[in-house]
TrEMBL record:
It comes from the Bacteria. InterPro entries: Rossmann-like_a/b/a_fold, Universal_stress_UspA, UspA. Keywords: Cytoplasm. Belongs to the universal stress protein A family. Its main location: cytoplasm. It holds the Pfam family Usp. This is Universal stress protein. The keyword Cytoplasm applies. It is found in: Cytoplasm. SUPFAM superfamilies: Adenine nucleotide alpha hydrolases-like. The gene is uspA. It comes from Enterococcus saigonensis.
Length: 155
């Protein structure tokens, strides 16, 4: 049996420390396999149009897109700092669950999805339910859950 060499790695970024750690580990996996990291920020467009204020809705989406661009640039800057530049940024719109588990893996021939998770105790593991849990169940490829390790600074 041959060992899997992950060439196309997808990781979702949202500005959280969990996502940042998953991204940094994705860079190391891609480096070892001469692969590529796709960093994706998914913008939910299900903000209801309140009393006909569709321009307000568009402003929110525009702000989210600007934030996503900044997150992607931070990832690319980190990549350069560790001498890895094979990073592609993706801004997707819609459901984070279906984008990360189905649409993006299919579109970019993803063979590994990496997701961050902070749940170390029973309650947090139960709460993993959202995006990470859906991706684990539905992705057409391998999924690696990166457990968030909080850095405790002791005086």
């Amino acid at each position: 049996m041959s060992e899997q060499a992950y060439q196309n790695i997808l990781v979702g970024i949202d500005g959280s420390e969990q996502a940042t750690q998953a991204f940094q580990k994705a860079v190391e996996v891609a480096r070892r396999n001469d692969g590529k990291v796709y960093v994706a920020n998914v913008i939910q467009q299900n903000v209801p149009v309140l009393m006909g204020y569709s321009s307000l809705n568009q402003n929110i989406v525009d702000q989210e897109a600007n934030t996503a661009k900044l997150l992607i640039e931070e990832c690319k800057k980190y990549g350069k700092s560790v001498d890895f530049t094979n990073i592609e940024g993706i801004i997707a719109y819609g459901s984070a669950k279906s984008a990360m588990a189905q649409q993006l893996p299919e579109k970019y021939a993803i063979d590994l999805v990496m997701v961050g998770q902070s749940g170390l105790n029973a309650v947090e593991r139960f709460m993993t339910g959202s995006v990470a849990s859906f991706v684990i169940r539905e992705a057409p490829c391998d999924v690696l859950v990166v457990t968030y390790e909080e850095k405790n600074e002791k005086a």
